[in-house]
Task: structure prediction
Amino acid sequence: MGGAASARDAGASSPGDESGPGTCTGSAALDAVWITAALGGAWSASSVAGGGAAGAACVTAQALNGALAKSPKSVPQPPALNRTRSWYHARPVRAHLADFRVNFGCCVACAACLTACTPAERGPFAGASDSSQTASRVVPAAAAPPPTPWAPYAEAQTWPLANGTPFTSRGHQPEQQVDVRANEVARQSYAALVTDSVFPEGSVLLEQAHSASGGGLGYAMRKSSGRWSFIQLDARGGVLASGALALCAGCHAQAPADHVFGLPRAS
Result:
């Protein structure tokens, strides 16, 4: 081993020498020393030219150094990743999902537009009448039947007039020119009317519009069981109201003789 060490020191002393045929210097000489020792021989510079184990070791070392100098340095590479595609990444599936997203977005946009553009239903303003909305649904009321004719009306037209000429009635509205007729029972009492006069039972008095003026209302009084009842008539003798009419009774209670006013006095 001492020879090998001296040979290694000798080779190391000239690392910059050129290596040509029959020479072994530099790193090749160091490697040749170790190769020769491994083969069980002794290495020396003179033994390289003579061949043998030392020469073969030097050639082998030079070949190895040349191959290492030409080969690029290897860089560690990471293990290859598994690029297996899942079902979601398949092209057909992605295409269908893209169409679905587009269609769904369009539906949502249309629904939002319809909701925003549809006018909200409005009711009537507070305090306002909705009669205009319900007028078309109101069924018109049936026409009222004509008034029932007053039974004595036709006969009363034959009673003699109590007044000589028409006069203006101011106690009944509207004011109009009227005539007064009395049935046979009441005729004498009406003609001789004084403050204490009392009309007999069954007396009937009628005041109606003068025939020349036409139209107007008529008013009649009938005494029965000591009480007077009042009848309001239309222009044709139809009964508009009858009975103990409060307005009529209240006014005739102020009359001078038995709830009857009589004819106006001549001025």
